[in-house]
Amino acid sequence: MVKDFNSGTLTLGVDDIVPTAAADLTGATTDDNGVLISARENVGAPVAVGFRAQKAKGTCRYFRLYRVKFSLPATNL
């Protein structure tokens, strides 16, 4: 049996991400000063994301999402 998931949104709470990591995830580039340079047409390579969530009884449930594509992170000041 094959199950397909075609679309969704994953929001990660990341306090800080270095420009090189953001470039790797989103397909953007960095300049010689380490500044992230992005364009609307940038698309990063798909990656796998794994995480765990604690259930009410104290046990954990593990999740793995394959072929996740990231967009540029939002900046909130």
Explain the overall architecture.
The longest helix is centred in the first third of the chain and has 8 residues. The protein is mainly beta. The chain has 1 helix and 4 strands. Strand 1 and strand 2 form a beta hairpin. The relative contact order is 0.20. Strands 1-2 form a two-stranded antiparallel sheet. Strands 3-4 form a two-stranded antiparallel sheet. It is about 10% helix and about 25% strand.
Share of helical residues: 10-25%
What number is the mean pLDDT? 85
How many E strands? 4
What is the general shape?
extended
- The largest sheet has its strands arranged as 1-2
Distance between the termini: 46 Å
Question: Segments where pLDDT lies below 50 for 5+ residues?
Answer: none
Structural class: mainly beta
Biggest sheet statistics: 2 strands, antiparallel
What is the radius of gyration computed over CA atoms, rounded to a whole number of angstroms?
16 Å
Number of helical regions: 1
Order of helices and strands: HEEEE
As a percent range, the share of strand residues is 25-35%
